[in-house]
Amino acid sequence: MQLILSLLQQMSVFFVIAYLFSKTPIFKPLVNISIQFPHKVVIYLVFSSFCIMGTYFGLEIHDAIANTRAVGAVLGGLLGGPLVGFFVGLTGGLHRYSLGGFTDLACAISTTIEGLFAGLVHFYLLNKHRKIDTLFTPYIAFLTTLVAEIAQMVVILIVAKPFSEAWSLVKLIAPPMILANSAGAALFMNIIRDQKTMYEKFSQAFSAKALKIAERTVGILATGFNEENSARIAQIIYEETGVGAVAITDCEKILAFIGHGDDHHLPGTPISSTMTFKAIQHNQVIFADGVEVPYRCSIQAQCGLGSVVVIPLQGDNEQVIGTIKLYEPKHKLFVNINRTLGEGIARLISNQILSGLHEQQKRLLIQAELKLIQAQINPHFLFNALNTISAIIRKQPEEARELLLHLSRFFRKNLKRDCESATLEDEIDHVHSYLKIEHARFADRLTVKIDIPEQLNSIQVPTFTLQPIVENAIKHGIAHCLEAGEIIISGTRQDSLLVLSVEDNAGLYENKPRSDGLGMGIVDKRIKARYGNRYGLEVQCQPNQWTRITITLPIEESGDD
Amino acid sequence: MISALLVDDEPLAREALADLLSSDPEISIIGQASNAIEALQMINGLHPDVVFLDIQMPRVSGLELVSMLNMDDAPYIVFVTAYDEYAIRAFEDNAFDYLLKPVEPSRLQKTLARLKKNYQQPPSLNPLASADLQLIPCYLQNRIRLIKIDDVEFAFSDLSGVHVMSEEGTSHTQLTLKTLESKTPLLHCHRQYLININAIREIQLLENGLAEIITQHGHKVPVSRRYLKMLKDRFGLQ
């Protein structure tokens, strides 16, 4: 009885150490079954030291030591697997052996066996049955230790000489040691399991929060990093994190402030906090928890905010483009975790700002390219048109005059079309003006059929959708055709899609980049940028027979049709 | 009288030039062609003194047309184009002159004046030796086809003209054997036959130092004594 009590006593010391230890980061690998080598090493070191401690805290009885060494060996094996278990047991065993006594060899052997046995239990549960949760139950730890300790007693009886002494020792220590070690291992496992559950709950809540913020803020910054969008983002972060206040700044002024203190932290005012400047200047997270590092509002002395974390927002090449600040009021302590969450949020928002910038640049690029098409009424077309007119002007002055009118109309349309979309009718009209000129030039070598039902006329399409395609069909198709060329332009409505097609009978399409191929590429790019990748141009070609360009567009319901 | 051929794929452009030329009594327009293949036929058939040749034309450009001409009896070439001024300059050696569209009457006068001074002598065109032909324009059942040199097995001449044999059968071409020989890798194996070395499957030696080539598609092509030796040399045979 005395022995049980003292064993439980040393076990208590054990638990205090284990408990304190469980609060340190070293403990983290223990709660997850990991196959990474460094984690295995940590497990080995931790439990070997428990093994050794168990021996030291033991009570000397009859030239032997009643101890709690088994706890370390069994847990090492259970958490680390056969190999780790074996080495933990061996280490503990060798240490015990070095202390001498008539059971030294028996104890060394038995401890190694205990570690290995627990490791096999680990292997059996995990690899054979994938029961990771069962592995962490105190019950398994209890049973494993129970069996292991009985085995130890048997080993002592077999190995330790003389047998009579071994027998009387075992009679004395077996019940208390088996009981104390098993209970100890079970309790220890309980600590680990609690810790594990806590980590999981915590990261669950944490991830859920982060995901929620990510989900709600998606796309808001696509239209730019400005006051309006920042206010929406700040509001979402404020609601989701439950911090005292959230601020977003660019490098000069406050863009948004939501929460406590929004009476004097005003959006649009310049940054006054030195911490924010520091964060921007050094591109680092600045943390004032209000305890070790004091926080004082730079605007108003009686401001209720007591702590803050300032995290830089990064744009291209990790350049700082602003900050996000999470505050807590004075009566609330800053939870350390807010810092990690804050960093995550900052990264999320940085990415969103960046992708917003890219969106914007893409749009600008397309606009610029559009300008280029407008300006780039290609000189060849102009030359050809002028030649045609000059050729007929003497004999058919009336027709020449008409052609000039068409030419000027075509040019005027090209220049005036700065708006993004036009009706399909408008677009067809533009094609007509263009074709008038080409008709005169190619005469009977060019026939064009336009087959687009009138009901489609009012549908809105991006400007410069049809004409560049028709121009391409003539320039790269009909113009190279020895026989009479024909172009068929057709349009149909397929549910919510407008499908336009331009087909020539030359079949000379070559899938290679042309220096003057801007027309078709940009039409496709514009449509995709505006409506998504499902829409745009498709080219089909039957060599020397026909080439067909199909344009697919969504029909935007304007409500009046 | 200087006979002139006008080649342009745009009818109005031909008309405009014809108008300008008609005011000169010494020029007689003997034909107009709307593409290079028609033009080749007319040049070979009508032997004009001068050809006013557009550069941008369907399938076979004016520049390519020049490389298809027999240098012995080639006409004077005057390129007429709306643009590509630089491209023409590169070919200046092969042309007598070039004009930009729309053609200015005064500029045309200069060209004509030079022409009148020179047309008695044959034009000193530097043959476009480097410009090998990639395509042979042919007539195949009333259609104009451009046959790739690699697809040609052999070419031959008979009373009706020059023909090339390809996978699609025999087609008539306006090119002469001489042009084909100098502008393509085809080799003489007989006075009237040019063979594509890559199309030879076997050479059967006959009596009297004659031979016969069997092509990949099983056509038989005669080999004369004179050319057999050259063929053998080519393959390193004795």
How would you characterize the overall build of this protein?
The complex is a heterodimer of chains A (561) and B (238). Chain A is of the alpha+beta class. Chain A folds into 3 domains: 2-205, Arp2/3 complex 21 kDa subunit ARPC3 (Orthogonal Bundle); 220-361, GAF domain (Beta-Lactamase); 376-554, Histidine kinase-like ATPase, C-terminal domain (Heat Shock Protein 90), CATH 3.30.565. Helices cover 57% and strands 16% of the residues of chain A. Chain A has 17 helices and 14 strands. In chain A, a hairpin with a 5-residue loop joins strand 6 (305-314) and strand 7 (320-329). In chain A, helix 5 (82-98) packs antiparallel against helix 6 and helix 14 runs antiparallel to helix 15 (424-442). The model of chain A has no long low-confidence stretch (mean pLDDT 83). Chain B is of the alpha/beta class. Chain B folds into 2 domains: 2-118, Rossmann fold, CATH 3.40.50.2300; 138-235, LytTr DNA-binding domain (OB fold (Dihydrolipoamide Acetyltransferase, E2P)), CATH 2.40.50. Chain B has 7 helices and 15 strands. Chain B has helices at 11-22, 36-46, 62-67, 85-90, 105-118, 177-183, 225-235; strands at 2-7, 27-33, 50-54, 76-81, 97-100, 135-140, 143-148, 152-158, 161-166, 169-173, 187-190, 193-195, 200-205, 211-215, 220-223. In chain B, strands 7-6-10-9-8-12-11 form a 7-stranded antiparallel beta sheet. In chain B, strand 4, helix 4 and strand 5 form a beta-alpha-beta unit. The longest helix of chain B has 14 residues, at 105-118. The radius of gyration of chain B is 20 Å and the shape is elongated. The chains are: A alpha+beta (561), B alpha/beta (238). The interface between A and B is medium-sized, with 22 and 19 residues.
